[in-house]
TrEMBL record:
A cellular-component GO term for this protein: outer membrane-bounded periplasmic space
Keywords: Hydrolase, Nucleotide-binding, Signal
Protein name stated in the entry: 2',3'-cyclic-nucleotide 2'-phosphodiesterase (5'-nucleotidase family)
Domain 5'-Nucleotidase C-terminal, residue spans: 288-425
InterPro entries named among the record's database cross-references: 5'-Nucleotdase_C (IPR008334), 5'-Nucleotdase_C_sf (IPR036907), 5'-Nucleotdase_CS (IPR006146), 5_nucleotidase/apyrase (IPR006179), Calcineurin-like_PHP (IPR004843), Metallo-depent_PP-like (IPR029052), Pesterase_YunD (IPR011240)
UniProt-recorded Gene Ontology molecular function terms: 5'-nucleotidase activity; metal ion binding; nucleotide binding; UDP-sugar diphosphatase activity
Keyword Transferase: no
Domain Calcineurin-like phosphoesterase positions: 6-206
Entry's Gene Ontology BP terms: nucleotide catabolic process
Pfam family, one: Metallophos
């Protein structure tokens, strides 16, 4: 008895709703084609469907994403870091209350109770119409430096996976991992666990058009932003998995689903209405400019210094994407100006290293550097803006410039002293500032994002203006 199961999967949508109706139409078309073949299909999302940089997600704390997933009839989903660490604990506890699908994540625990939350399952055994049993196991990336501050603990994916495989392997015909761990981790797990048949991957936005095979395990990765819909075909004979193939389908670029477009228009209008809550009234506008310090970027640096109780505030001007108007300032204005899911962070930096960072940040290469990922939703770095730190620039005959001197609160920088710097978490990840990434002591502030600090600053007359 042969049986073919088709898994339709999406990942890392990040609230790119401009692609949603086309994405939905691609899923509908695939289901129709599979139905015409008389085969069974399952639809799964692999996390980071939500991104609070979009008004619909911000206004609803992600609940509208879940409504849209219900509308598309998802059967299963796992948790991404954008759901896990950009919402307060209470908001995450409520996110999937109205979901028509189970949320599968095995390595997320409440810190106090040391139990998995009630709204998720560590795994599901999916039984097909012909009785084939597949274990679907969910794992999310262990960003414990954030999760711990929010009241969660994310356990080691390897340890949790070993326990669950030992539990489910005797009961199923195939094991499928729903992974929001990233491609390198997926490859490592495929090599470490021969029991795994398929890994449906996400998080690092890799594009694997036909999947990859590692140690007899097939790995899928489907890019980001709804650009692709993945299709994994599993062929069983007498309930034994005998073949598997993977394909990525480019999302349809036609008109898309009219019903989904109408629903999105309604949700967008509702979100804009909900975000018209006034925050404060300003006598003068706050102006953004990526290539010079302005009253807006200076306010942000001052606010970071105050919030983090630091010696210095440091932030890149590229973080600000719009001006704030004179007069009434609303939640929507704040979100438009600073939509990034980026948190404040306090660092202890030696004077010698701080001098190197200031010099590097002043180079044209760093100012014009395009940035993708790391929570950043803008275009480029921009100039670095400071509060509590000033520097003088020498202009040379050949037109080049260099930093001649640095002062902190009017005194020359002490290269042997440690300074507390209030800045943004983006600098502590990735490739932007490897010297900052290597710092041993980083103090993250969650759940507050940078726009929350801006709202606090402009609405509180006692804080830096």
């Amino acid at each position: 008895m042969r049986e073919v199961i088709q898994i339709i999967h999406t990942n890392d949508f990040h609230s790119h709703f401009e692609n949603f109706s086309q994405n939905a139409e691609t899923i509908r078309r695939l289901r129709t084609d599979i139905d015409d073949l008389g085969q069974e299909h399952i639809t799964i999302d692999l996390g980071d469907h939500m991104d609070r940089s979009h008004l619909i997600s911000e206004a609803s704390n992600g609940k509208m994403n879940v409504r849209l997933m219900n509308k598309l009839h998802y059967q299963y989903a796992t948790l991404g870091n954008n759901e896990g660490i950009t919402l307060e604990k209470e908001q995450l506890d409520e996110l999937y209350e109205e979901a028509d699908f189970p949320l599968i994540v095995a390595n997320l625990y409440e810190t106090l109770s040391k139990r998995r939350p009630d709204w998720c399952k560590p795994y599901v055994i999916h039984t097909t119409k012909q009785g084939t049993k597949m274990a679907l196991i969910g794992l999310t990336a262990p960003f414990n430096h954030f999760y711990t501050l929010l009241g969660w603990t994310v356990q080691s994916p390897e340890d949790v996976l070993a326990e669950i495989i030992a539990e489910v392997e005797p009961r199923v015909h195939a094991i499928v991992l729903l992974s929001h761990l990233g491609y390198p981790a997926d490859v490592a797990l495929a090599q470490a666990f021969p029991e795994l048949n398929v890994i449906l991957g996400a998080h690092t936005h890799h594009v694997l058009p036909d999947g990859e095979t590692h140690a007899h395990c097939k790995i899928a990765q489907g890019g980001r932003f709804g650009e692709y819909v993945g299709q994994t075909t599993l062929c069983f004979d007498q309930h034994a998995l005998v073949d598997s193939t993977m394909t990525l389908h480019k999302s349809d670029r036609g008109e898309g689903s009219a019903a989904m477009s109408e629903m999105l228009d309604a949700l967008s209008a509702q979100a804009k209405e909900d975000m018209q809550i006034p925050i404060a009234s300003r006598a003068v506008p706050l102006i953004h400019d990526w290539f010079k310090e302005t009253n807006f970027s200076k306010l942000l640096a001052k606010t970071l210094r105050s919030w983090c109780d630091a010696d210095i505030g440091m932030v890149n001007a590229g973080l600000l994407l719009a001006d704030l108007p004179k007069g009434s300032v609303t939640q929507m204005d704040i979100h438009t100006a600073c939509p990034h899911p980026i948190n404040p962070c306090a660092l202890t930096i030696n004077g010698q290293l701080l001098q190197e960072i200031v010099r590097d940040a002043a180079t044209n290469e760093k100012i014009q550097m395009p940035i993708k990922g790391l929570g950043f939703r803008g275009k480029q770095m921009g100039v670095m803006v400071y509060d509590g730190l000033e520097f003088q620039i020498d202009r040379h005959k050949d037109g080049s410039t260099s930093i001649a001197s640095i002062t902190i609160h009017g005194a020359p920088i002490d290269l042997d002293r440690d300074y507390r710097v209030g800045t943004i978490d983006m600098f502590t990840f990735g490739h932007l500032y490897p010297s900052i990434v290597r710092l041993p002591n980083k103090e993250y502030y969650v759940p507050e994002m940078m726009r929350d600090l801006l709202a606090w600053a402009i609405s509180n007359p006692d804080e830096p203006q």
